[in-house]
Amino acid sequence: MAAQAAGAISLAHPINASFTEWSYVQTLDTIRTVSQPEPTIISLEGEIDLHESPNVRERLRPLIEQKVLRIYVDMGEVSYIDSSGLAVLIDAMQRIANYGGKFGLIAIRPAVRTVLEIARLDQVFRVYPDRASAVSAT
């Protein structure tokens, strides 16, 4: 059989076998490209401040421990975030990046966006306008 390019799909078929015995052989590169798990989306609401940020950290902790590959936080109902809330999001982003995962924020309100922009974190976080954009991102 001729050599295959990396990531190629080949069809293996014995000479004297019936058509139903075809099998697909895929390299790891192809499987990695085809297999995209659905992201986990956590929805937050209200004010993410010194009192609420530990709860956000606890919602993210088990997902990070399980090394979920795509974690997004829907901020559409978050009206305010302080430095402790930002610290939780930064910590989550760094931990997820350490194991090769992706982290992003969805539907940020103008008041929260202003806080991110002042801290220049809008250039650090992946920010999506809505859930559909986040889910379709690779």
Description:
This protein has 138 residues and is an alpha/beta fold. The chain contains five helices and six strands. It has helices spanning 28-34, 53-65, 83-98, 110-118, 131-136, and strands at 9-12, 23-26, 40-48, 70-81, 102-106, 126-128. Helix 2 runs parallel beside helix 3. The longest helix has 16 residues, at 83-98. Mean pLDDT is 81; it is low at 1-35.
CATH class of the largest domain reads: Alpha Beta
**Widest sheet, order of strands:** 3-4-5-6
Q: Mean pLDDT score, rounded?
A: 81
CATH architecture label of the largest domain: 2-Layer Sandwich
Overall form: globular
User: Would you identify the CATH H-level superfamily of the largest domain?
Assistant: STAS domain
Structural class: alpha/beta
Summarize the structure.
By secondary structure, this protein is of the alpha/beta class. It has 5 helices and 6 strands.
How is the topology of this model organized?
Layout: E1 9-12, E2 23-26, H1 28-34, E3 40-48, H2 53-65, E4 70-81, H3 83-98, E5 102-106, H4 110-118, E6 126-128, H5 131-136
Parallel strand pairs: 3-4, 4-5, 5-6
Antiparallel strand pairs: 1-2
Helix pairs in contact: 2-3
